[in-house]
Amino acid sequence: MRLPHTLFQIALLWCGHVPAIAAADKPYSVWMTDSLITRGVPATRWYTEATFYRGVEAVANLTADPSYHSFLTTSVDTLLLANGTFRGWDYKDHQLDNIRVGSTLLYLHTRTQSPKYAAAASFLHNQLVVQQKRTPSGGFWHKDPKYPNQMWLDGLFMAAPFYAAHTALFQPSNTTAWDDVLLQFALVEQHCKDAQTHMLRHGYDESLRAAWADRAGGTGASPHVWIRAQGWYLMALVDVLEWFPRAHPGYQRLVGWFRELAAAVKREQDPASGGWWLVMDQPYPGQKGNYVESSGTAMYTYGLLKGVRRGLFAEGEAAGYVEVAKKAYRLMVERFVAKNGTGGTLNWEGTVRVGSLDGNGDYKYYTTVPVVENSLIGAGPFISASVEMELYNAKA
Ligand SMILES: *[C@@H]1O[C@H](CO)[C@@H](O)[C@H](O)[C@H]1NC(C)=O
Ligand SMILES: *[C@@H]1O[C@H](CO)[C@@H](O)[C@H](O)[C@H]1NC(C)=O
Ligand SMILES: *[C@@H]1O[C@H](CO)[C@@H](O)[C@H](O)[C@H]1NC(C)=O
Ligand SMILES: *[C@@H]1O[C@H](CO)[C@@H](O)[C@H](O)[C@H]1NC(C)=O
User: Fold this and answer.
1) 0.90 cut: is pTM over it?
2) Which residues cross the membrane (predicted)?
């Protein structure tokens, strides 16, 4: 969504509503983006960089500063031949993580109308809707052949916003496509949602074969609620709702799922810190080995604030979500944003390197993965959350 020009300018005035670790001369969205770009972000089509590109896109929209648009153009142009073919594409590799960069292609298409971005996006669309294998119910496999019949929450963010945006831009009246976008969420809701807490487990295996799959309950779900998987999923819902047609009966279902998850996230916010625990299901918050993790905290903050901005909450509920987001944002700038030496750049701390359903998906696995500095899958969502916070403050 393009903002009116005056709002760009208001947003650029650093108005200081957001708690700062020190007097900031530029908004955190811009400061964190500049910090990472200054230190170097490789041009790749992998989802980690693509998640950062998504944050840069928000900054490009917010500031109208051409250098962010140039950064995206330069990065993506490195990946493509002049006719929009990806360099060095592995045609045997089918995984949803490959699709994430599609959102950046559609941004560049919208801004430049250069046919090569549409061509590359159309290629990715084909990889998804034609080449990607599906579960018997029609859910995209997370990765073929490695994770057969498995849907992971992560995959919804990797593919669904691109699928929705591509459909809206190129085939807006293709009802089959809209039904298909909806189905991906419906399957996850059906299999992964905990009936009591309304939180979503990391993934499910429709064939019930994975070591971690819930066979007794028949859902095939993995055992735990992992903060980042649910964070990807919340971002997927809020981003898809930007494109999904309001007249389609699925729109209200998506809004309902968004609200239900937002309510769960609000309930589960750690009252002491304002963040969320790596493993979120009971009885694990506060237990030995568990910790408040930064990438998921950034994703929830983004999802809630964008939901507020886009009017997705019921009358009278938005203010409560703003309070949740502000508290989380304060934690992020106090604990997860750190000054890096004398260069005036920021570091991003406290992001767990990875979380996979490759093994048995148990508590010990999640809590023994290392925490890394300057992870793009934490810093990118922090930038997106910062843009939302800055837009909110500019209006408040
Ligand atoms: C940036 O603006 C474009 C064009 O209006 C829009 O499609 C896209 O969703 C926006 N991106 C972000 C991250 O807000
Ligand atoms: C794009 O260009 C490359 C290199 O010239 C060529 O191999 C490929 O077939 C072209 N792709 C399309 C879709 O035209
Ligand atoms: C409509 O969308 C479906 C699902 O993505 C796709 O298989 C089909 O080819 C699309 N139809 C047209 C006319 O593009
Ligand atoms: C600054 O960031 C770089 C790149 O991440 C890192 O190698 C370096 O240790 C950081 N320096 C400080 C003082 O944090």
Assistant:
1) yes
2) none
